[in-house]
């Protein structure tokens, strides 16, 4: 009897049909997979419960910025999929955090709101404007005016007292990190400026995008081969750089650069924004192909292999996926290469989304072929973002004001990647010496369950 019960339980595991199944070439499969990941993300939200705060995932462990990032992901999800299931809760959340001056400066969050934190809420509002998301109620202004309000604060905070420019990480002097000038804060300002230039046609925003780029590259936060480093410190007059690399740093500049390429009609290979976009895309290889048999699968290079990512870092692949999809739309010459990265990463993410009671909870490591037991907001958001990104070919590009004429149509993710020596395995960064999670060689992740299954077929007489 015990053998029969054991066989029944194990067979239920192997034959369970509720797990996320993704065919990266089939639209309905992509929609279904992204929908399942979105449902898992929303299941973690408690903002509408008695012990929650509207607009915020529970803190701790999730800081205010990550809630803004997640709602930005939900705006993208709504636009890419056409699924309005979460439209009302997303709208309510964004409105709830607009702040007294409609600029996403929220007094209750002063202890943890910096320039980068604010930017992730602004990204959400800017996407809302670009995609025609329902506007806030009176007396709040339209989304685009909220974005402009926040942008003006960034201009006012641009600090030339030290380092000849740049945004600080923090804008409240009492917060730790006030003297740190951070790439994601400056990259957020850069991307918002680029997107406002494209949306409005106002050259002032484009001028600021150029100014920010010049400063960031001038102090060495972007190097000659487009690696993007974490930040620098005005206490040393920005003479040294923290060389940690995070996926969202290169991602935020990549998408902003592609928007500038689109805005300036930079189809000429000699155009500066064409060159920068392609250089930044090349620099993203740091975050793909962690092992020889995990080609094109995304990973967070600074912490994932060694299992030491913190809560914030567990979400950063979401933004890389979001901005890669956007880049393929703005700079169509990148679409083939980006498509290969997104398809492989989405397939890996789907295999990692087999946890929890419903066998649909998403894990963090996408290159193992199995659920790794790591769960949370960042894991769900990242899986949702990379899956829905595959719908970019079927998605309308961001809107502009009626008087703005922009070249560009959605890219073709099915196009083959360009022939490029940097795309070969020999040229990709590999981490052969580092053990994969759980001590398992990635290629064995599927072989071991298969071996167990075949043994059970024989044992249980299936």
For the biggest sheet, the summary is: 3 strands, antiparallel
Question: Which regions contain 5 or more consecutive residues with pLDDT less than 50?
Answer: 1-17, 408-462
Task: Return the string of H and E elements.
Answer: HHHHHHEHHEEHHHHHH
The largest beta-sheet arranges its strands as 1-2-3
GO molecular function: mannan endo-1,6-alpha-mannosidase activity
Signal peptide: 1-19
Main location: membrane
Organism: Cyphellophora attinorum
Architecture overview:
With 462 residues, the chain is mainly alpha-helical. It contains 14 helices and three strands. 47% of the residues lie in helices and 2% in strands. Strand 2 (231-233) and strand 3 (241-242) form a beta hairpin. 50% of the residues are buried.
In short:
The protein has 462 residues and is mostly helical. The chain contains 14 helices and 3 strands.
List keywords for this structure.
single chain; 462 residues; mainly alpha; three-stranded antiparallel sheet; 47% helix; disordered C terminus
């Amino acid at each position: 009897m015990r053998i029969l019960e054991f066989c029944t339980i194990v067979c239920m595991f192997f034959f369970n049909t509720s797990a996320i199944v993704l065919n990266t070439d089939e639209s309905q499969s992509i929609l279904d997979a992204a929908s399942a990941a979105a449902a898992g993300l929303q299941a973690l939200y408690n903002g509408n419960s008695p012990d929650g705060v509207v607009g915020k995932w529970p803190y701790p462990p999730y800081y205010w910025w990550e809630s803004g990032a997640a709602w930005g992901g939900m705006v993208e999800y709504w636009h890419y999929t056409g699924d309005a299931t979460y439209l009302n809760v997303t709208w309510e959340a964004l409105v709830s955090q607009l702040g007294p001056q409609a600029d996403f400066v929220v007094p209750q969050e002063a202890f943890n709101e910096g320039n980068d934190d604010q930017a992730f809420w602004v990204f959400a509002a800017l996407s809302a404007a670009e995609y025609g998301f329902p506007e806030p109620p009176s007396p709040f202004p339209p989304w685009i005016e909220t974005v402009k309000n926040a942008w003006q604060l960034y201009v006012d905070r641009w600090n030339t007292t030290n380092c000849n420019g740049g945004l600080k990480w923090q804008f409240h002097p009492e917060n730790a990190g006030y003297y740190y000038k951070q790439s994601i804060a400056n990259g957020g300002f850069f991307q918002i400026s680029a997107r406002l230039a494209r949306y409005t046609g106002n050259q002032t925003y484009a001028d600021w995008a150029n100014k920010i780029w010049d400063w960031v590259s001038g102090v060495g936060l972007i190097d000659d081969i487009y690696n993007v480093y974490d930040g620098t410190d005005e206490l040393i007059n920005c003479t040294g750089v923290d060389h940690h690399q995070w996926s969202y740093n290169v991602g935020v500049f990549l998408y902003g650069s592609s928007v500038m390429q689109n805005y300036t009609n930079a189809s000429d290979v000699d155009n500066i924004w064409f060159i920068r976009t392609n250089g930044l895309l090349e620099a993203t290889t740091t975050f793909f192909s962690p092992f020889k048999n995990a080609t094109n699968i995304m990973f967070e290079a600074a912490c994932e292999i060694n299992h030491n990512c913190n809560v914030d870092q567990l979400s950063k692949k979401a933004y890389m996926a979001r901005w890669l999809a956007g880049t393929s739309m703005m700079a169509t010459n990148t679409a083939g290469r980006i498509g290969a990265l997104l398809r492989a990463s989405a397939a890996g993410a789907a295999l990692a989304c087999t946890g929890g009671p419903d066998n649909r909870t998403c894990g963090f490591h996408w290159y193992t072929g199995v659920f790794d037991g790591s769960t949370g907001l960042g894991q769900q958001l990242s899986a949702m973002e990379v899956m829905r990104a595959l719908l970019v070919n079927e998605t309308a590009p961001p809107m502009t004001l009626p008087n703005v004429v922009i070249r560009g149509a959605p890219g073709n993710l099915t196009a083959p990647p360009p022939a490029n020596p940097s795309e070969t395995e020999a040229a990709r960064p590999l981490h052969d010496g580092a053990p994969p999670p759980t001590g398992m060689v990635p290629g064995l992740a599927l072989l071991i369950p298969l071996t167990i299954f075949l043994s059970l077929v024989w044992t249980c007489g299936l």
